[in-house]
Design goal:
Largest sheet: 7 strands, antiparallel
CATH topology of the domain at 2-23 and 83-200: Jelly Rolls
Structural class: alpha+beta
Shape: globular
Distance between the termini: 31 Å
Bound molecules: N-(carboxycarbonyl)-S-(naphthalen-2-ylmethyl)-L-cysteine, fe (iii) ion
Order of helices and strands: EEHEEEHEEEEEEEE
Number of strands: 13
Oligomer: single chain
CATH class of the domain at 2-23 and 83-200: Mainly Beta
CATH architecture of the domain at 2-23 and 83-200: Sandwich
Length: 203
């Protein structure tokens, strides 16, 4: 069930299904303490996906820039702790993809509704780019764009469904990537939305 996307990038189909119930409970806890919100970019545009975080560090954006912060800027409270189910899943998926000993300190949770997109970008706000990133897809399907090292490089289109986990690091860590606008669909547990957890070592 390990599909290769790049030299050090893999899709683990259905890898999160075994822990589905725990992950959904964890999601409900986190989003009750730190509700989803749409962030503003430094350029003044409101992002299409709604976001929240758990773990010691959370990714955030406003007119001053993109950064990781220990506290939720909306509540002034620390981000909710990272649920053990997410931590364990990230560690096991990373190990399966050739990155043993991964300990994330940041989990960004993105919520996509039909029509929501994420334009091509690189993840470069982490202190070190030597650690992998683990991404967990839940809910309605999405088409993921897996590009090259330059924005103009042609991107592969990868369908991701409920339970799929993507892991990439090493030479593939700084590839451009994004998500095409979601088609309307309904998932039996999550309704008309896609939830993506992205686990990183940011600090
Ligand atoms: C491939 N999120 O939050 S995760 C993000 O589905 C983000 O919500 C997307 O990109 C989502 O920054 C995609 C998958 C992903 C993330 C980073 C990558 C794939 C990647 C970096 C390099 C190559
Ligand atoms: Fe990204």
């Amino acid at each position: 069930h390990r599909e290769r996307l790049g030299e050090q990038a893999f899709v683990l189909r259905g890898f999160a299904l075994a822990n589905e119930a725990e992950l959904l409970l964890a999601l409900a806890d986190v989003s009750a303490a730190a509700p989803f919100r749409r962030l503003v970019t430094p350029g003044g545009l409101t992002m299409s996906a709604a976001m929240t975080n758990c773990g010691a560090l959370g990714w955030t954006s406003d007119r001053r820039g993109y950064r990781y912060a220990s506290h939720d800027p909306d509540s002034g409270q620390p981000w909710p702790a990272m649920p053990v189910a997410m931590l364990a899943l990230a560690r096991e998926a990373a190990s399966e993809a050739g990155f043993p000993g991964f300990v994330p300190d940041a989990c960004l949770i993105n919520r996509y509704l039909p029509g929501t997109r994420l334009s091509l970008h690189q993840d470069r706000d982490e202190r070190s780019h030597d650690h992998p990133i683990v991404s967990v897809s839940l809910g309605i399907p999405a088409t993921f764009l897996f590009g090259g090292h330059r924005r103009a490089d042609k991107a592969a289109r990868i369908p991701l469904v409920h339970g799929d986990v993507v892991v990439w690091g090493g030479v593939d860590r700084l590839r451009f990537h994004g998500v095409v606008p979601l088609k309307p669909a309904r998932h039996p547990l999550l309704g008309e939305q896609r939830i993506n957890f992205t686990l990183r070592k940011a600090g």
